Amino acid sequence: MRDELYSPLGQTLAPAARPQRRSLGRWLGAACATALVAGGSAFTALNQPAFAPPAPPSPVKVAEQVAERRPEPAERQPNVLRMEQGGGFTISDAEGERPLVDDANPMTGSIRVLEPGSLRQPAAFSHMPEQALLEATDFGPLPVRGTDGRRPLDVYAGAWSGTGGTRIAIVVGGLGVSQSGSMRAVEELPAGVTLAFAAEGNSLDRWMQAGRRNGHEILLQAPMEPFGYPDVSAGPHTLKVADAAAGRLDDLHWSMGRITNYVGVMNYMGARLNADPAALQPFLGELSKRGLLYLDDGTSLRSEARDVAMANGTSFASADLVIDTEREPASIEKQLDVLERIARAKGTAIGTASAFDASIDGIKRWAAAAAERGIEIVPVSALAFDPEARG
């Protein structure tokens, strides 16, 4: 009766199997299934290939892949100097990369570069000394060639167009002696005018930084022995002929340690030393060794500086005339006119002056008009004979 009540409508309920047989069948089924699974897994495992890490690619294949991924080398920048591990330098320029051999100045082991302007200090940092171009001494930081071959002459050189045409360099000296004159020269003169700082002056570092920020190239005026010494003296640290000839350059080093960021040295007085080749050779050799130029102010007709500089491999320039031997405006204007005629005759000219009010006023007026006549005022380094430059 119970089975009929739970039987689906219209279907006949099959007789129930005995519990003992149903449990035994389930056990046998499960055992068979387990045996089949285990046997299949064992068969699969036994027939799998042995596991091993993949063999490394051959070195040749790796090299080929790296070569395919390696970018093309960047184009060599011109005038880049590199110091080699074993000593010596190489240069990259339009001719390719090659060892840099010095055949111009074997005395100093100098490095010659093409277009030194490419090594010029960026304008934004031009008032800051390059630490790699300084030597710590008892006299203060002295300029020195960098281990990469750069010279202070290259790095601190003033900018100019680099084109041809009539070019004039004007050097205004005595900065640091008069504070008002120094301020006017730094702030009012065109950037192309070179400023020369007196070693005995005051606040030199402050004026140097202001001058460099305004685009001026810098020289150091070193006191040197004049005729009539000691009755006529350039100051307590005058470089004397006897000391220079003997290689005793302490007074020169004192002057050189008073300021930084200059491209060379200009004489203050010094007619007697400039006339003595035995004294000039150690003096100019020291400047060349340190990567500086020498500017002869051109006041002495007995100067031997040009010939000794040429023989010594020193970068050199000589002034054609002094602009303000007389401080009258009419005389200064006349001298500037003479300087311009010299430049038009030979292409370039160099004039010197001092930071007097009349000189600054006259140079300002002349420079504005000269630019309209196609004359470029350039830093003195642009007109110097440089035996280390080639091109």
TrEMBL record:
It holds the Pfam family Polysacc_deac_2. Residues 66-75 have a biased composition (Basic and acidic residues). It comes from the Bacteria. One of its GO terms (biological process) is carbohydrate metabolic process. Residues 53-77 are annotated as: Disordered. CDD domains: CE4_DAC2. InterPro entries: Divergent_DAC, Glyco_hydro/deAcase_b/a-brl. This is Divergent polysaccharide deacetylase. It comes from Aureimonas phyllosphaerae.
